[in-house]
Amino acid sequence: AQSVTQLGSHVSVSEGALVLLRCNYSSSVPPYLFWYVQYPNQGLQLLLKYTTGATLVKGINGFEAEFKKSETSFHLTKPSAHMSDAAEYFCAVSSNQAGTALIFGKGTTLSVSS
Amino acid sequence: KAGVTQTPRYLIKTRGQQVTLSCSPISGHRSVSWYQQTPGQGLQFLFEYFSETQRNKGNFPGRFSGRQFSNSRSEMNVSTLELGDSALYLCASSPQGQVNEKLFFGSGTQLSVL
To answer: Quick one: closest CA in A to B6, which residue?
Structure first.
């Protein structure tokens, strides 16, 4: 069975500071990993995904994540936070056999202060 | 290109009633999947439809059902509503429902059960 654990339900950073959102997964098959962002009263938007190939994945809005199989992690980072990054972030895992059946973590709310 | 459209945006029902939610995918997308989002359980996969057939199913009781029409529009039905069914229901579409495709989410239908 697959599962996702996001460490920290709330993360607060100052504008311009490094953003680090942690995600660990469990999967008995090669995982496909995703980060989504949700703004208030909106649906989810894909930030980035790892399927195969390069383990460092770059996404939209300056975010990137690195797939580390040995650590079963897929942490999301951004070098410099912007006020507009304040939102809820979800890490998700899937398998090739169930491409749209994503298993999501509980989410991390990112707050950015000026 | 229009995005994923979900109607209605808000819905209030009472226990024991049934409800139908609608989702119109992006034009050309044949896969439609549904998710339930609650503060306690987070985001959970309900089911996926592809070419009018249910292809994947999550772990929800039989009160939750869905269907897809020949134009790829999908409906989700919940019968005998319970208080715990109060949630944001999200629909997502993709061209073929493959894991390497991008999922596009609608803004959701907020269901309140009184």
So the answer is: A43
